Amino acid sequence: MAVAAALSLPMSAAMATNGMLMEGYAAVATSMGGAAQAHDVGNAGMAQNPATLALQPDGTSRFAINVGMLQPDVESSAMGMTSKSGGDFYLMPSMGYTKRNGAWTYGIGVFAHGGMGTEYDGSSVISAMQGLPSRSELGVGNVLIPVAYQVNSDLTVAATLKFVWASLDIQMTGSVAQLAGYLAPQSNPGNLVTNLSSVSSPTTTFARIDFSDDNKFSGAAKATGFGAILGATYRVNSEVLLGASYQLRTRLSDMQTNSTGASFGVIGSALDVGKMTIIDFQMPSVLAVGGSWQVNPSWLLVADLKYIGWADSMKSFRMRYDSSISANGSVDFAIKQEWKDQTVLNLGAAWKASEQLTLRAGVSFSDNPVPDQYVHPLFPAIEKNHVMFGFGYKFTKADSFNASLAHAPKVAVTNNSDPSMPLTISHSQNNLQLGYSRTF
Question: pTM of this prediction?
Answer without folding.
Answer: 0.91
